[in-house]
Amino acid sequence: MIGGASIKGVLNSILAWVSGEMGWGYMWIYVINFVFFIFIILSKYGGIKLGDKEDKPAYGNFQWGAMVFATAIDASILMLSMVDPLRYIQDPPFGTKPYSEQAYGLAHMLGQYNWGPMAWMMFAAPTIAIGYILYVKKIKVQSLSDSIIMLNGNKPWQRFFKTVVNILVVLGIMGGVGASVGLEIPIISKVLSSLTGIPDNLLLKLVLFTILFIIFTFTVFKGLKGGIDKLSNMHIWTAVIFLAIVLAIGPTVYILNSETNSIGLLIQKFIPLSTNTIPNGTPDTTQQETIFYWGWWLSYMPFMGLFIARISRGRTIRQVVIGMLTYGALGCMSFYAILGGYSLWLQKTGEVNLIHILSTQGQSAVIAAVLSTLPLKYIMFALYCISCFIFLATTISSSAFVLSSFTSLPLARGEQPSRANRMTWVVIFIIFSFSLVMVGGFETIQTFCTLAGFPLMFVVPFILYSIWKMLRNDESIKTIKIKRSELRDVRRQNRIRRKKITVERKNAVDGDLILSPDDHHDD
User: Fold this and answer.
1) What is the C-alpha to C-alpha distance for residues 230 and 394, in angstroms, rounded to an integer?
2) Where are the transmembrane segments (predicted)?
């Protein structure tokens, strides 16, 4: 909270260096991770169950998907899905002319790429590693470092690097989740002020933080069952209702046509976007936004891995990964399809000059302007704010749950961290987020998100290596190999037997053991 201007300057300089010098690293780690898990789910390893053969999932598919989606996605998607496309049409990639028809098409698609399959697949690495150790190897897991097999030991260097990884995880979660709240509270405050006339001041922000704290306290005391799971259901339904209303009363045909076009563009541009480092020229908005989001997703990776793993016992690796892509990636893409499509339609038709509002008043004013165009705007605003609070509460409650697990003394199997520990992390999140609000600025939030995930980029390869070693030595895979080997032996013996019979028959014919008609005459 002290030295805001100087801090912002330092952070922006660091962000410029990371984006310019290490953008290739972000790109490659996501590509490698994506290809690795595509191979896993298409191979025999995808059928490995996280648990014993008789284990059944503790949550139904919808409940599981709701918890996965709600935990990873905070209120930022309700905000950025309206604003991001407006940035892209001003500075589109691939040499596209700004504000052209092609620029509008790309702008509608680009947010879906940054929140789509490539992003969600990053959560698979810690999820599968932790889930396998937890439910197949039956070893306690409290932190991400427990999933890196080369660090499992008591040698000094192993203890040292485990501590380093754990510190990076805590800093990453703090940076990612804290930055999310720091981004969202000022926007909610501004939108509330714009639509109701309540002064947008420090007091209003303190009231909003107090409401969040009350919600957090309730869910933390309830824990996973009865708290986070109930909040997740509310999260999904408020989001579905809000999106359905916008789609129904908005330019429905335009949104559906835009999304159909975006799916084709996403398939066509997937590889170029995944390797978009721009070595010859100045990085454009698309590349900078992708680096920002890749850092943000990496900061969420550790706590999402532990959280999803804890609720995935009884599911196969294939079910977990495909479920994440279905509920997570498709869920996020629907926000950009509908809310982003609506913003682009307002701009394209001249209903509202959102780009002018964005450049002169900021993204909070853009969101207020978009909501003001909807019928029954106060009801829609109330639904929007409720959704934002539920989104935030779910994410931070889950984060506090996971961080308290990281920082607890060894827990018994199935034991949850103490409420005091969980509440401590809730308070820390609130204080840290409030500090970011006081520093202010979207660029500052972007920097925190990008930098929070940067060190974790170097942890991912070790997690992938650990997964590969564990799956290669999995007992069920060994059993399949033994059975296949036995089957090959049986087939080989059958071929030898058939060959022997064929040879005997041929010898019998050549040796005149088969009588001719002349041999039957009587003497």
Assistant:
1) 10
2) 25-43, 64-83, 118-136, 160-182, 202-224, 236-256, 291-309, 321-345, 378-403, 423-442, 448-468
Task: Return the pLDDT at 488.
Answer: 67
For tokens 């999803």, name the residue.
Answer: 308
pLDDT for the residue numbered 470: 93
Name the burial class of residue 469, with classes exposed (0-12), middle (13-18) and buried (19+) by CB atoms within 10 angstroms of its CB.
Answer: exposed
Angle between helix axes 460-472 and 4-42 (nearest 10 degrees) is: 20
How wide is the angle at C-alpha 141 spanned by C-alphas 136 and 144, nearest 5°? 115
CA distance 75 to 380: 15
Rounded-to-integer distance, Cα 391 and Cα 266, Å: 27
Residue at 378: amino acid letter:
Y
Contact present, 145 and 133 (Cβ < 8 Å): no
Give the integer Cα–Cα distance in Å for 209 and 99. 38
For the stretch 278-324, pLDDT in tens is 766 666 778 888 888 898 899 888 888 888 998 899 999 999 999 99
Residues 6 or more apart in contact with residue 314 via CB below 8 angstroms: 49, 50, 51, 55, 56, 57, 58
Cα–Cα distance for residue pair 137/125, rounded to 1 Å: 17
45-62 in b/e form (b: 16+ CB < 10 A) is bbebbbbeeeeebbbeee
**What angle (nearest 5°) sits at the alpha carbon of residue 43, between those of residues 39 and 48?**
115
Say if CB 124 and CB 30 are below 8 A apart. no
Residue with tokens 């990008």: 450
4 exposure class (CB count in 10 Å sphere: 0-12, 13-18, 19+)? middle
Question: Do residues 447 and 179 make contact, with C-beta atoms less than 8 angstroms apart?
Answer: no
Residue 44 has pLDDT above 80, yes or no: yes
What's phi and psi for 316, nearest 5 deg? -80, 165
Question: Could you tell me if 342 and 246 are in contact, meaning their C-beta atoms sit under 8 angstroms apart?
Answer: yes
For the entire predicted model, the pTM comes to 0.82
Instruction: Please give the CATH architecture assigned to the domain spanning 4-466.
Output: Up-down Bundle (1.20)
Q: What is the per-residue pLDDT for 284?
A: 74
| Confidence class for position 514, pLDDT limits 50, 70, 90 | very low
Q: How far apart are the first and last CA of the chain?
A: 124
Neighbour tally for 392: CB within 10 Å: 27
